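Re: duplicated header lines in exported structure tokens

Our pipeline writes sequence and tokens for each protein into one text file. With two proteins the header for the second block appears twice in some exports. Here is an export where it did not happen, for reference. First protein block:
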Amino acid sequence: MRHGRPFNPLPARTPLAEKVRLLRYGRGLPRWNIACDAHVTDGWLGHVENGDICAPDPTRLAQLAHALGVSYLELHDAAGYPHLIRADIPQDLMHLVYVLLELPDGDRRRFLRMAHAFLEPEYRKLFPDTEWVS
């Protein structure tokens, strides 16, 4: 019993809700603690656990995965997103995508800005007729 209420592991309405709820209960952590670590509100996390939000923004999903101590892919699959692995994309590139998704938001943005600065001249050669917005 926590905070005067018994543990209620009733199945949630969505696979993501069930997964998040079971992971949090398994760690014995209150919702506000996970929400704080994930940089989301307690209310938002409550909506996820109740199945009201079944396909959250991938950035928030990555933050939640990090706070719960699981890989982004575990929650990605539970949210019902299409599989990211495609036959025409090299595995090394897919690994980079997964690593980027698990980075904290600020680090991910810094990396993407550096990659953009590095790759922009090549893009301009490949697509000379494209109008570029900086």
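Second protein block, exported in the same file:
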Amino acid sequence: MALLAVACAPAPTAVELSPLAFAPVPSAEAFTAEAAAPFNIRVNAINPGPIDTDRMAYLTKEKATELGISVAEAQRILADVTLLKRFGEPRELASAVVFLASPRASFMTGIMLDIDGGQVQAI
């Protein structure tokens, strides 16, 4: 069995969305999963939140500069968009990828798995 992994870019920390953004829309992974299923190929996607990477360190420094605050305060602000009030660790994201690639996820296809610490988006 083959596995196609799709990674999405982290969501912005604050966005303005129209009510149409919440309308149910079939996802790309669901469409792809439907097309791939006859070939016994599973298609799933991971939607990461703020993960403690070099990119988040850069974004944190940029936020600190933009707001004229310390890097620690900027990190707190960026982490506060999650219910867990912290950045995820790369190993936490990797564990989800390993799970989706494993036989334990053999009956999962067409899903978007949020690895985001309960990220809360503002309207």
